[in-house]
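## Example record

The block below lists the input lines for one assembly entry, exactly as stored, with component labels intact.
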Amino acid sequence: MYAVQIEGLTKIYGSGDTEVVALADATFDVAPGELVAILGPSGSGKTTLLTTIGLVTEPTRGKVVLDGELIAEGGWPPGLDLKRVRREKLGFIFQSHNLIPFLTTVENVMIALENNGIVGREARARSIEILKSLGLGHRLDHYPALLSGGESQRTAIARALANRPRVILADEPTAALDTENGKNVMALLKKLAVENNSAILVVTHDQRMVEGFDRIFTVSDGRIVGEKRNHVS
Amino acid sequence: MNLALRDIRHHRSRFIQTCLGLGLLLGVVMSMGGIYRGLFTDATAVLNATAADLWVVQQDTSGPFAATSRIPEEIKYRIKAVPGVEQASALSFQNIQSERHGKPFRFFLVGYELGGMGGPPEIVAGHPIGQKHYEIVVDRAMKIALGEQLRLAGDDYTVVGHTAKMVSSAGDPVAYVTLADAQKIQFKDDNNAIRNSREKLAGQLSRLPFLAPNQASQLTPQIATIVGSTHIANTVVARLAPGADLVRVQERISRWNHFRPLTGKDQERILTEGMIKKAKMQLGLFRAILLIISGVIISLIIYTMTLDKLRVIATLKLIGTRNRVIVGLILQQSLLMGLIAYIIGFTLIGLTHDKFPRRVDLVAVDLQLLFGIVILICIGASLVGIRKAMRVEPAEALGG
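Predicted structure tokens for the full assembly:
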């Protein structure tokens, strides 16, 4: 079973003279454990593609299936609990980390677990385990303001991974990092995709990072104009 | 994990400062309520201390507190003789303003008969007045030590006792002297005035054609004594015997010319509905305005705090946090702010209410009501922030 299946996915903003086609007829599948890049210049529609898969933007047409569950066909099915799907199946990593500033590193991870009903000591123990595995064992009780860019992004990755989602969506995760930290984050994502058997879709325009991906989709003017497979181990 | 507490922990100093500010405001609201209540207590302090069933005053007046009333002192004997009356005493009331240590010094002087009604209800230091003249009992608030002397109408009065929390309806501290001294202070002219009026009287009598000069000179001191009599009181208070019919006694005295018998309840109504009504209304209005201001301030603070957290809220929504958690974050902070501010205000007023120039009566039911209102304001105020938070789109968490 594919982790992500999209078919004819289209998003149109406005109508008539003001109509803007942000995403047109996108179709692809992503297997579990696959690390996929969506590459393209600003305004090309790559973030719209990501947010449509992430149940943030409602598609105008097309179909989205996440981990075997139909989550969009034309629009969102009536009665679909978007938050439940996001909690259970998706993990998000942001360009600017988006850590909760008033929560410590460990609490930032715990909040994702608590959203899924894992609370108290169990949530804390699991959060610490994830953070330690990402090399943040010494930063557990630090606030985000005291973390470096790389540490913040690893904390965000830990939060995205906390519920072992089938799909992780990352929006420019290396944009705020220097080359070395960026490469470390990409290597980490690759490792996690394999270890957790999660599909990871990364929106980026950072050409430095494309080497590590299994597949690269190029988006231009809302259309997928290219697909390239890297044969990396 | 409680997000509201975590946020407060992180922004501790800002939260405490906000609570302090709000606490001061609520303290002012509480003090207004206390002053509002204190007005009533002050207004009825002398009335309640006298504990009279009837207040006989000059006809067509609402004396002795709300209007001037002058009646002959000896009417007390006639009142005492009415069936059902157990005790009757003449009382004198007057406001006195003088200077002490270069500052205006104002108090309310009560003249009472030793052993009669209307004297100081409680002596907290020293002893009650023991002799007929030149002793005075003052309220502690007047800050005159025992043994000190106070000059009134040309005579020195020695402070022999202190009362506590006895004030007039105007909020001035109360002092007590004997009725005879009070009459002298209130009604007796000074020597020059007596001389002048006697000369005037003598002149008028000498011009009367039917009086011989020696008759006029013999009549002058007699008439002067009658005219200059100080045996006047502002009211005569009466206490009825157990089981006596108040209405009946009141009706009987009403039939006499020149007098009006008011019951204790009548006096209370005159004092609270007449004399302090406007002051109470003004304080009540001021308190309502302050509560509205508090509500607006809490709303603004909560709204601003929510605006500061819009990206956090968007992120929480994106990672699937339930709405009730986000609502809880805003609502709990609002309630906690109200609760802490209330405690600060209450502590502040609890520690300082004795130092206010006027009585501040902190009544439990008022404080409970205010607490309820504060909680309602907090809930109402947080609704503005919650509405804003619910409108935040998860997409706002994306992008740089």
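Chain B has a mean pLDDT of 88. The longest helix of chain B spans residues 12-43.
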